[in-house]
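Sample 1 of the test manifest.
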Amino acid sequence: MAEYFTARGLPVPPELRRTPLTEWRRTFAIALAIAVFYISFKVTDIDTSRANLPYALSVVGQLLHFDFLPPHDLSKSVLFPQNEFETFWDGAVGLMVITIFLGILGTAFGMLIAIPLSFLGARNIMAGNRVTMAIYVAVRLIFTIIRSIDVLIVVIVGAIIFGLGNAAGVFGLAFHNIGVMGKLYSEAIEGIESGPVEAITATGASRFQVIWAAVLPQLFNPFVSFSVYRLDTNVRLAQVIGFVGGGGIGQPLFANIQLLRYPQAGTFILLVVITVAAMDFASAQIRRRLV
Amino acid sequence: MAPIVSVRELVKTYPTGTRALDGITLDIQRGEFVVLIGLSGSGKSTLLRTLNRLVDPTSGTVTFDGIDVTRARGADLRRIRRRIGMIFQQFNLVRRSSVYSNVLAGRLGYRTTWRTIASRPTRADVALAFENLGRVGIPEKAFGRADALSGGQQQRVGIARALMQKPELMLADEPVASLDPATSHSVMKYLEEINRKDGITVICSLHFLSLARRYGTRVVALKAGRVAFDGKPHEIDDRRFREIYGEDAVEVEIGVGRTTGEPVEAGDAVDAPALDLRIPPDR
């Protein structure tokens, strides 16, 4: 086959020039992947000997036997306040609503700080001189550092500052989101077309007017799309920040599991699943319409 | 009469080492329709962009109406820029915005930053926007999205946006290179009209010599960043054509609604090796 190309003085396609060397590399890559998998197992010392399938199945059964189904009493379900000292907001439904709003607040505060910073973290805006490039590098570095600290860790720190509860949770979500949204927004800014920027500059507009007329209109849709995507993620995160003292539905969920109240824990998990699915669907619909 | 644009010993070397302009000296008089021709990479785009300082030249000077463009900074530079309209090969409209707001953006150089944000466009600006949309024949498209228009219509929006500046000079960077022959002529006719009727000086880079002959009052050919020819369009004969575009080039005509010959660029080499694509006998 290769002589067809050589006879006509054409370069031979790489597919036809495959040598044992390239084959050897491929074999090596597969062997390496298997070796890494094996070493992972050895190092982590995965032990499944204590697994108890019948017990696990009984727990799953209890989790699915939600506490509002008979023989449980619907009126005594954790969905609603449990005694005369609790209000609607202490029931699972109320807590779920609170948790959604925790996610919204975390997103909002994160956006508020991330949007202005993202312009400083966009290469195409900051290119030009050394000072602005230094700011660009610094802002991007800050985003990366913030992003690398997981939400749960920030919430624990937040609980030290604000005490246990919703304030710590919102702080944790917002802080982490500055890093994540800052990066997403910066990349959206870097992805804009440069043509309109050039054209508006040529009309004699100032730097700020150029951003206003040529950059911002290109950013509206990607920014809304990323924000909705992060809102979706944040509402999901808001449900676990309660595990470490961040408020919301996570705290009673965690407590019920630890108290082995599986039917009640199952009810909480069901609410969480419904909410996440609904958020996921809504967010996908909104984002699809924005493209 | 003093030239509107005067270029002296202009040199531009890009950071990559490419010497895009290699000592250009040129005077352009008011009312001229100058067509820049030359191969891709001969420096046409760079020259146009140094005239309004979208590109900073390495050395040499550009003066516009007696003002040194190369030394202007800040507000002075912006005052020069707003007197120079520019249209582009890729139209460079804000695609998601309406035609109307794209056209109004041409007026930004005349407004303060504060007024851009704080207030709506003035009645006079809106009237001017519709006047210019009317001139390029698409007032009914004003509130549609810019990217819903055809290529030719988008370029007309580009012209309307530039006209909002009430420019004395219009720069056109290959304005018809993305358009089909018939549309090309319609766009070129608008440029001709603003040149003849409004007296706006036009500097337009083009690929097709036939368009240059049809619309230009003067042709400047660039070759490797230098002026290779400067004169009347009809003075370009076969010998000069080969000097500008190289030995292997053949000229193609571009007419209204028809092309003679293949629509290749004027400078395309024609001796590409013919490939034998028969299936080999062993298959």
